[in-house]
Amino acid sequence: MTEVFTALTISLLFGIGIYMILRRDIIKIAIGFSLISHSINLTIVTSGIFTGTLVPILTNTINEHADFIFTDDFAGGVLSPIVTGVTENSNYADPLTQALVLTAIVISFATTAVLLTLAYRINEEYGTTDVDELRRLYG
């Protein structure tokens, strides 16, 4: 049931974003791009969540006598600090998707800030944010 609700939420956000991009106002276009980026981020996060249910953290105790905390043994299947004994049938969520989405959120925020700043400057310069009217004013 959770997957259905998430899929509906993603499709609704994406649809509203496309609808907003097709409007004539630059502010609405910027908000539409932001909504589409949020729906894409949600899609990426859910692709990593539904593959597993456990959190990928260290499960073994740390050796107190060692000079280092994490020991990687690729041949033995120990990839610290993620999880010890990872196999193909492990039921762990993928942490890479969360890291990618965190980066995408920052980039999306910066892009939205630039679009809104551009819309503000256009409004100051021409007195409107309507795309058709700006096209007429330009020539």
Please report the number of helical segments: 4
Summarize the amount of helix as a percent range: 55-70%
- Main beta sheet strand tally, sense and closure: 2 strands, antiparallel
Average pLDDT, rounded to a whole number, is 79
Tell me the β content: under 5%
> What strand line-up does the widest sheet have?
1-2
Q: Which geometry do the CA atoms define?
A: elongated
Distance between the termini: 54 Å
Uncertain stretches of 5 or more adjacent residues: 62-69
Q: What is the succession of H and E elements? A: HHEEHH
Say how many strands there are.
Answer: 2
Architecture overview:
It is a single chain. Helices cover 60% and strands 3% of the residues. With 139 residues, it is mainly α. It has a two-stranded antiparallel sheet with strand order 1-2. Strand 1 and strand 2 form a beta hairpin. Helix 1 runs antiparallel to helix 2 (26-49). Mean pLDDT is 79; it is low at 62-69.
Please supply descriptive tags for the structure shown above.
two-stranded antiparallel ribbon, 3% strand, 139 residues
Topology of this structure?
Elements: H1 2-21, H2 26-49, E1 78-79, E2 83-84, H3 95-126, H4 131-138
Antiparallel strand pairs: 1-2
Helix pairs in contact: 1-2, 2-3
Summarize the structure.
With 139 residues, the protein is mainly α.
